[in-house]
Amino acid sequence: MQRIYSGKEVIRAGEKLLDVELVRTQPDEYSASMDVLSYWRFSHEKALDSAFNLLQDIARKKDKATIFAKRLKRYASIVAKLRRFEQMKLKNMQDIGGCRAIVANEKKLRQLVRDLRKRSEFKTAQGKIRSKDYIKNPKDDGYRGYHLIGQFSGDNSEKKSIEIQIRTALQHDWATALEIVDLFTGQALKSNRGDAAWKTFFRNISRQFAIMESIHLFDTLTPRQKFETYGEVILNNKSLIEACRDAKQSSEKLSVVDTLQAFAHGLKIVDERLSQVLVTGYALIEVNTKKKQVSVSIFSDDMNAEAEERYIQCEKTAAATDHLVVALVSTTAVGGLKEAYPNYFADSTDFVRHLLLINSLELPKGGGSIWSDFYRRLFRWREK
């Protein structure tokens, strides 16, 4: 029977894990603190399932093609957040459990948000809704999406905070690409730390993606129609031309297309079939950036205890090295694990397709054939 820890013990464990040397200087203390973290994290499991089921029920009425994902926050992400916000305590972190819906466009996103905001789970005792609209007000790094924090019943009917993220497909493509760069370059762009050139690139591209999403029915257009309509918007506005030029230059400076392509083609998936499994339960994803290898272990619903034990052991190992990343995610995602969690498989295909629209747009004082260059590069990407 698993030990139950008090709130004070959870807080103390979080404080101990802030010590970057703990795993080396006090391995027993580190292991004990990780066990407390694991207990606290998995105490959110029941509440996370309730939030996920609610999200699915409402989202499918707005967009039958919605992609869903859910996860319990990784150790590395928890500790990074505690270090970033000095006043935050592990017991009070609101996104230990989180789920996500990815819809086709912003219109469907707003419809989904409207219905979720009506639910009592997202309202405080004073009737306030805890939400962040990162579409109207993007984060400094360019991140866009809509977040809601709800209260859902967990173990022993205790309420737990669960974060729900709603993104459009294009917003998700952007976030995925940033996470891939973080994962395979060892940066922390997601925490607004890392190489200045990469920061600039993602901010610039976020602005261009926002322009694309402002175009009516953009997600339904063919590649040629997307290029034409996006180009028309850009070329009719001097300030947008300069913004697009900045995006193109930052992309070319970093050879982004080639870099992302190298990540994808250099990664070995130990068992390709596992990435498409439809068993209901959890998948333990282990990424070794040194060996450029990703492996997936599947745990069905009746193996939750085994999944939890294996996960915490892998995290303890990963904490002692810079080239191992582990995550425990849901296998219930429509379309398979690679569609819901493309970052762990270095899959930036959709992001690159839209980046090529930007890179191939001929701006004033430019030269060459717009269409021949666009299709040549798009064909080359698909062939590789």
Would you mind describing this structure in some detail?
36% of the residues are buried. The longest helix is centred in the N-terminal third of the chain and has 18 residues, at 45-62. With 384 residues, the protein is α+β, with helices and mostly antiparallel strands. It starts with 6 loop residues before the first helix and ends with a helix. 49% of the residues lie in helices and 15% in strands. The strands form 2 sheets. It has a 5-stranded mixed beta sheet with strand order 1-2-5-4-3. A 4-stranded mixed beta sheet has the order 6-8-7-9, with helices on one face. The chain has helices at 7-16, 22-25, 27-42, 45-62, 75-84, 106-117, 169-185, 196-213, 223-235, 238-254, 256-266, 304-318, 337-340, 349-359, 370-383; strands at residues 67-72, 97-103, 131-133, 146-153, 159-168, 268-269, 281-288, 293-300, 324-330. Strand 4 and strand 5 form a beta hairpin. Mean pLDDT is 88; it is low at 367-372. Helix 1 packs across helix 3 (27-42), helix 7 packs antiparallel against helix 8 (196-213) and helix 8 crosses helix 10. It contains 15 helices and 9 strands.
Q: Please give the number of β-strands.
A: 9
Question: Termini distance?
Answer: 51 Å
Principal-axis shape: globular
The H-and-E topology, N to C, reads as: HHHHEHEHEEEHHHHHEEEHEHHH
The portion of residues assigned to helices is 40-55%
Structural class: alpha+beta
> Order of strands across the biggest sheet?
1-2-5-4-3
The mean pLDDT is: 88
- Total of DSSP H or I helical runs spanning 4+ residues: 15
Largest sheet: 5 strands, mixed
What Rg do the Cα atoms give? Answer: 21 Å
